[in-house]
Design brief:
Helix content: 25-40%
Number of helices: 4
Shape: globular
Strand content: 15-25%
Structural class: alpha+beta
Distance between the termini: 69 Å
CATH topology of the largest domain: Chalcone isomerase
CATH architecture of the largest domain: 3-Layer(bba) Sandwich
Largest sheet: 5 strands, antiparallel
Strand order of the largest sheet: 2-3-4-7-8
CATH superfamily of the largest domain: Cytochrome P460
CATH class of the largest domain: Alpha Beta
Length: 209
């Protein structure tokens, strides 16, 4: 009798534990499945790209792989630089891993570019260029299914409000001629300017550290 009184509660506890594991497994499965897919970003039914924090599996681009921040200031471009802001570039970790392994950008690759103004030009360390305020947010996506007619299958997006207001929640692809022509002509690796990012150069197989 003692053994039965001990075994039954134990079986009950094990049964409850098994149900909880099964339940939490069901709850977690959709997120895991989506995050491991070949498309991490989300478009709405109007073919507009949502911001990363609004994707089916929300993602904070500032937690991605940061590869660098180019700057072409006005002072070095006759006072009229085409892009006088800091351009901080982030790559989704899944796609960075493929780059490190193969030296190629996989289908579904996404890069985010966050633009920041030039703030103070003097600090305790001396004169220079220091970041100011956030100005905009852009993205580049390689997708052979969605952009099969675009050069290299790349498309370019901007959530930036040109009037200086809050970022747009959704955005459509820019015309190919607006962005792609420069990337196609001058980018080092598959429409990506890897020549300006030592992180990517060092990670590419065969390049050394």
């Amino acid at each position: 009798m003692r053994s039965q009184s001990f075994v039954r509660p134990l079986l009950t506890l094990l049964g409850v534990a098994g149900c909880l594991v099964f339940l939490f497994g069901i709850m977690a499965a959709p997120s895991i499945a989506k995050s491991k897919g070949d498309r991490v970003y989300t478009f709405n039914d109007k073919d507009e790209l949502l911001q990363p924090l609004d994707w089916d599996v929300p993602s904070d681009w500032r937690e991605w792989v940061y590869v660098g921040t180019p700057l072409t200031p006005n002072e070095l471009n006759n006072g009229k630089a085409s892009f006088p802001e800091f351009h901080s570039v982030y790559i989704h970790p899944d796609h960075y891993k493929v780059w490190k392994k193969t030296g190629a950008w996989p289908d579904g690759t996404i890069l985010i570019k966050e633009m920041t103004s030039v703030g103070s030009k003097q600090a305790v360390s001396g004169q220079g260029y220091f970041m100011g305020e956030y100005l905009g947010l852009e993205a580049t996506i390689k997708d052979s299914k969605r952009f099969k007619d675009e050069p290299g299958y790349w498309a370019y997006f901007s959530w930036t409000d040109e009037k200086g207001g809050p970022r747009k929640k959704t955005t459509k692809a820019e015309p190919a001629g607006k962005c792609n022509i420069c990337h196609q002509a001058f980018a080092k690796d598959d429409w990506v300017f890897t020549q300006y990012y030592p992180v990517l150069r060092a990670a590419k197989p065969g390049r050394g550290k």
